[in-house]
Design a protein that fits this description.
This protein has about 300 residues and is α/β, with parallel strands linked by helices. The chain has twelve helices and seven strands.
Length: about 300
């Protein structure tokens, strides 16, 4: 019996050592979250324009075409909770910050949070690489190895010596090109219907919490004499034609309420006819070509205000 327990203990020890080794390796793989955190650590005092939000701005706004020293803190599936935490993280170091661009999409007001959806594995990246206090110190959010799927992909990149950073030096997401589109599915609306279904809420129960986060961002900017600009990014026609009218109306009602309460400029490009097929990667995300076009339009509109 003692020999059996000894072997069990050795086996467990081996597993622990292997897990620690893999965790160490995984943290050596360059990634977008770590890059953005380190960039802000080095440049927070000099940054003039910050872009927040999910993939619609991560892949839709190219900071190099904005006036001033601009950087994108946006990332895939990022919601108001992460936006607020990242904006406030460098609060004591902003010296030249003038503008914060905050997107509001069809689903923004209605989601419970990243940790409750299909992208919940991303929460650990904020905890591990961005020093985000949103998640418990003693939890699986502190371990890369706790998500086998994403960990295995990162291990492959490590041994292939591939760069895991999917943004340019300004924080813009570079993995959405204009190629590979299925225009037949777009025109039939099948892709759009699927996307809209994912983005349509079952209830409006999370509106209050999300509105309070946006108010806190607005207050933060107001107290520092920083312009907070609300935007809605362009989408393909078959996407916005399939949106639930009740949710869309509520989206605009909340935007205009916040806009009025804090005297915020709002630019709505949802149905902007200036954007053509090559400007999109899919029905609700801009391509790299479209992102350049959109950013130049947005910059001009911001400067005119």
């Amino acid at each position: 019996m003692k020999k059996f327990l000894k072997y069990c203990a050795l086996f467990v020890l081996l597993i622990v050592v292997m897990a620690i080794s893999v965790e160490f390796i995984l943290r050596q793989v360059p990634n977008t979250y770590k890059y953005k955190y380190e960039w802000m650590q080095d440049n927070a005092e000099d940054v003039e324009v910050l872009v927040l939000g999910p993939s619609h701005t991560y892949n839709g706004i190219r900071p190099e075409f904005l006036e001033g020293n601009a950087f994108s803190l946006a990332n895939v599936a990022q919601d108001f909770k992460q936006d607020l935490a990242l904006l406030k993280y460098w609060a004591d170091r902003y010296k030249r910050l003038k503008t914060v661009i905050a997107p509001v999409s069809y689903m923004s007001w209605f989601i419970n949070g990243m940790e409750y959806g299909a992208e919940k594995y991303r929460c650990r990246y904020y905890k591990i690489y961005m020093d985000c206090s949103l998640y418990p110190d003693w939890s699986l959010y502190n371990l890369e190895v706790s998500d086998i799927r994403s960990a295995s992909k990162k291990l492959v990149r490590y041994f292939r010596k591939e760069d895991g950073i999917s943004c340019d030096k300004y924080g813009f997401g570079t993995h959405f090109g204009s190629h590979g589109k299925n225009m037949e599915a777009w025109n039939k609306g099948t892709d759009a219907v699927s996307a809209v279904k994912r983005h349509t809420a079952d209830s409006f129960e999370f509106i209050e919490a999300n509105y309070e986060r946006m108010k806190e961002m607005a207050e933060f900017c107001k107290n520092r004499n920083v312009r907070m600009i609300l935007i809605t990014t362009p989408c393909w026609s078959t996407y916005y034609d399939n949106l639930d009218e009740k949710q869309l109306a509520k989206m605009y009602e909340l935007i205009h309420r916040l806009q009025k309460e804090y005297d915020l400029p709002y630019f709505d490009y949802l149905k902007d006819s200036r954007f053509v097929a090559d400007d999109f990667h899919d029905c609700d995300h801009l391509s790299d070509i479209g992102a350049e076009k959109f950013t130049k339009i947005l910059n001009k509109d911001i400067q005119s205000r």
